[in-house]
Amino acid sequence: xxxxxxxxxxxxxxxxxxxxxxxxxxxEVFAWLREVDERxxxxxxxxxxxxxxxxxxxxxxxxxxxxxxxxxxxxxRLATGGAxxxxxxxxxxxxxxxxxxxxxxxxxELLTAAGVRRFCLNAGGDVxxxxxxxxxxIRHPEHADQLxxxxxxxxGAVATSGRYERGDHIVDGRTGRPATGLLSVTVVASTLxxxxxxxTAAFAMGAEGVAWAAGREGCEVFAVDAERRVVRTEGVxxxxxxxxxx
Length: 246
Known about the structure:
- By secondary structure, this protein is of the alpha+beta class.
- It is built from 6 helices and 15 strands.
- The longest helix has 18 residues, at 23-40.
């Protein structure tokens, strides 16, 4: 089974290699992601996130799912000394950096709970997979038609944060200015919740974010810094060497 839909502002691709998987299971995965978009988008006035930000509901009234997202946001804010912060002055509460990985990981868990053994769920380039090996290409931060490297994962997740798609959209919460110390950072972890949020948090921290992410339990890091040097941890599962990023 292979299915692609545009959800939450980016393409989401689901591939399942198990035999005789009911189409209703893919329907459930994409229905969940659409539900997340409605409930957690800060750009939709009726979402739970927007209602909380306006004060229409209190912290004591939020759903269990939003309470979990809020807890993740606070944990990463504290862990990065404020570099990662979902609340920015003048812009309101925006938990998208947490919600993407968290929601796609939840979708993957729907698949495993249904007994699916081999699948790959790709959400805008961030991947959670099972039953590999699966090969995941990491885009060159300056050349859209080139890859920096190709990773190989069996069961786990890969996420990349960078400036190449949306420019200087990641801000260092400590300074209020765009993070510029890295061109891109990729994190490999057991869940996409960790990989995606840690990648964004590391990028917000700048050059020091590489060591920070590498120090998190179960995380491996592949990064390109502002001087175009490749930095990676020993455990990065490289399947194919493509040379330097320069």
